[in-house]
Amino acid sequence: MLMTDVSSRLSPAILPNSLSVSRLVSVKYAPQRLPVFVFRSARASYDSVETNPSVDSVIEKEEKNILACPICYNSLKSLISHPHGSVGSPASGSTQLQCSTCKKIFSANETHLDLAVASGTKHYTEPLPLSIELFRNPLVSFLYERGWRQNFIWGGFPGPEKEFEMAKEYLKHVLGGNIIDASCGSGMFSRLFGKSEHFAMVFALDYSENMLRQCYEFLKQEANLIDKKIVVLARADAARLPFLSGSVDAVHAGAALHCWPSPSSAVAEISRVLRPGGIFVATTFIYDGLFRFIPFLEDLRQEVMRYSGSHMFLSERELEDLCKSCGLVGFTCVRNGLFIMLSATKPSQISSASCEEL
């Protein structure tokens, strides 16, 4: 899950073995819309993704990449590969991006790009909440789409296909743009977004390396995803999204909000990266109804959050306040038992009331 949980789910890209020279190019996909960046290859054969996927990535100097440093939020530039095992060459097995301001370097392995703040550290470690560490476990990552997620039906979740169709209704105003699948896990929704061909680019983000590996494997096997290059896998923290401000059309977070140690930090980040008019769609569990009569429920919630790092939402109003406090408007939701799907929008312009206050 995105570490505020992109543990969730941002990873660099499916980097096909056959891709020798790949670059990020700006594509204008609709009038009055921000450019979207897609990977293109001078020599591409996307029929096979089974060999070494390392590539020599170059961002064209005249174009602007929407990926950003998670530390200072400035743009990243590609480090061009050189022979004999140097940066990004097949011998070194990785591609590297460097922040244009703080000069921090971010690398990619065969499955994903690592855009977490602690990327590249060898000796520094920090304790992470249980809700994050759980999904970094290889066994949990393996089982997530092979039985774990199916159990959500008992909480009212309609199932991935139905949830995807519901989400599309909220996202219809930004079709053709780019979308982040935050805390993507094994890529269940990332694949659906990719197969739908409704989006120019799908950024599948998660903090769990093992979830991203599962996502990569499932993507390789997905016969119905014709253009695999539009799905970009990256490891990232939901509280430090590696994107330029105002560069993303939509953010989706399926069954992830409750796994984020600080939902407010993550939603604030989502609000930052969304362009004006961009849409945030999320699903989570909500414990209201009969749960309201559990004695000391608020105290119980505090203890759960203290030890697990996960969050218990107790009302729709709480979720609406969360979105509003982070600058999102137009909150709406759909309920089914413990399941809730919510949507909120980045304001496209300052309201007249706000102008008067200014």
TrEMBL record:
It is found in: Plastid, Chloroplast, Plastoglobule. InterPro entries: Methyltransf_11 (IPR013216), SAM-dependent_MTases_sf (IPR029063). GO terms for molecular function: S-adenosylmethionine-dependent methyltransferase activity. GO terms for biological process: methylation. GO terms for cellular component: plastoglobule. Its main location: plastid. Residues 181-281 form the Methyltransferase type domain. It comes from the Eukaryota. Keywords: Chloroplast, Methyltransferase, Plastid, Transferase, Transit peptide. Belongs to the methyltransferase superfamily. This is Uncharacterized methyltransferase At1g78140, chloroplastic isoform X1. It comes from Raphanus sativus.
